[in-house]
TrEMBL record:
GO annotation, biological process: enzyme-directed rRNA pseudouridine synthesis
Pfam families in alphabetical order: PseudoU_synth_2, S4
GO MF annotation, one: RNA binding
This enzyme's EC code(s): 5.4.99.-
SUPFAM superfamilies to which the protein is assigned, alphabetical: Alpha-L RNA-binding motif, Pseudouridine synthase
Family of this protein: Belongs to the pseudouridine synthase RluA family.
Superkingdom classification of source: Bacteria
Active site, per annotation: 142
Name recorded for this polypeptide: Pseudouridine synthase
Keywords on record: Isomerase, RNA-binding
Organism for this UniProt entry: Nocardioides agri
Domain RNA-binding S4, residue spans: 18-82
Length: 311
C-alpha cells in the first residue's frame, strides 16, 4: 500500500467558481473539513501553485491533490519491543514480563509499542478468535503498569483461560506502594467502579459502577508509604489505582489519582508504583497449576529503596 494517494484532475465546467475545498469534496468524495486540512497541509496545487481553501476554481484548471493514507489505529504493526522478557513459552501460552510504556494491544489514540506487535515481530504465532488486534489476549495491564501477563497461542488455551479469568479462578497478585498507612493493615475493598463523570480517561467508585473487589495486606510500613500485596478478585480497568485512591492512599507516583507530586519527584517516579508480581492458573493443556513471577523493574525498586531509607 502506498503511503499517499496522488490524484490529478481538470476542474469540470459544473464546478466553475466553486471554492477549492468544495470542489475537492465533490471531485474526490472527501469531507469539506478533510479537504481544508489537506489544503492547509500544502497537499493541494491548482495549475502548479499552492492554494488557499477559499480560492475559486476555473473550468479546465488542473487540480493536483496528494491524499496521505491514514494509518488504521487498530493495525498490528510487527515490532520487537526492547524490554519485554519472555518468562515462559510453549504451544499453548506465552508468559511475558511487560515493561512500563507498552500497551497490550493497539487502540485508537495509542501510537506506541504493544505486546501484540512485539509477539508478531518476534515470530510468535498467535492463532485465536476475536478481533485481530486482540488475538490471544485474555487479560490486560495498563500502559503504566509493569509485570507478568499471559497471552494464549492456541484456540483451546484461549477459551480455557478466558473462562478462568471470567470465573475468577486465576490468582493475580500485585504489589503496590501506596501513600500513608491503610487502616486496617489488611482488608477488602468492595466498591463498584465506573467511568469518572468529569474525565473519561479516569475511573471512580460509582454507585452504578461494575462490581469490583480488591483484597490487600500490608507487607512493609514506612514513614511516608506502605508496600501492599494485593489480590484482585475482579479485573476492572484501573481497579487497584481507583480503590486505593478511594481509601485516600493512592499509589505513589499516580498523579492521575491524586498522588502527591512532591513525593513522586522525591522517589523519581513518573508513573504509579504498581507491579503485577505473580500469576497463577491451571495450565490449559496439562491441567497442572503453574505460577509465574516478575521482579520489580529498576524505577520501582529505586523508589522503594528511597522510601525505606526515608527517616
Amino acid at each position: 500500500m502506498s503511503l499517499a494517494d496522488h490524484r490529478v484532475l481538470p476542474v469540470p465546467e459544473g464546478l466553475a467558481g466553486e471554492r477549492v475545498d468544495a470542489a475537492m469534496a465533490r471531485l474526490f468524495g472527501l469531507s469539506r473539513s478533510r479537504s481544508a486540512d489537506l489544503i492547509a497541509a500544502g497537499h493541494v496545487e491548482l495549475d502548479g501553485k499552492p492554494v488557499a481553501k477559499s480560492d475559486r476554481v476555473l473550468p479546465g484548471a488542473i487540480l493536483d491533490v496528494t491524499i496521505p493514507v491514514e494509518a488504521d489505529p487498530l493495525e498490528v504493526v510487527p515490532e520487537v519491543v526492547e524490554g519485554i522478557k519472555i518468562i515462559h513459552d510453549d504451544d499453548a501460552i506465552v508468559v511475558i514480563d511487560k515493561p512500563v510504556g507498552v500497551a497490550v494491544h493497539p487502540s485508537p489514540g495509542w501510537s506506541g509499542p504493544t505486546v501484540v506487535g512485539h509477539l508478531a515481530g518476534a515470530g510468535f504465532r498467535i492463532s485465536t478468535s476475536g478481533a485481530s488486534e486482540r488475538q490471544g489476549i485474555v487479560q490486560r495491564l495498563d500502559v503504566g503498569t509493569s509485570g507478568v501477563m499471559v497471552i494464549c497461542k492456541s484456540e483451546h488455551a484461549y477459551s480455557v483461560l478466558k473462562n478462568a479469568f471470567r470465573n475468577r479462578t486465576v490468582d493475580k497478585t500485585y504489589h503496590a506502594l501506596v501513600q500513608g498507612h491503610p487502616d486496617p493493615l489488611e482488608g477488602t475493598i468492595d466498591a463498584p467502579i465506573g467511568r469518572h463523570p468529569k474525565a473519561d480517561y479516569k475511573f471512580a467508585v460509582m454507585a452504578d459502577g461494575r462490581h469490583s473487589v480488591t483484597h490487600y495486606e500490608t507487607l512493609e510500613a514506612h514513614r511516608f508509604a506502605s508496600l501492599l500485596q494485593i489480590h484482585l478478585e475482579t479485573g476492572r480497568t484501573h481497579q487497584i489505582r481507583v480503590h486505593m485512591a478511594a481509601l485516600k492512599h493512592p499509589c505513589v507516583g499516580d498523579l492521575t489519582y491524586g498522588a502527591d507530586p512532591s513525593l513522586s519527584r522525591r522517589v523519581g517516579l513518573e508513573r504509579q508504583w504498581l507491579h503485577a508480581v505473580r500469576l497463577g492458573f491451571e495450565h490449559p493443556d496439562t491441567g497442572d497449576y503453574v505460577e509465574y513471577e516478575s521482579e520489580y523493574p529498576e524505577d520501582l525498586a529505586h523508589a522503594l529503596e528511597v522510601i525505606r531509607d526515608a527517616h
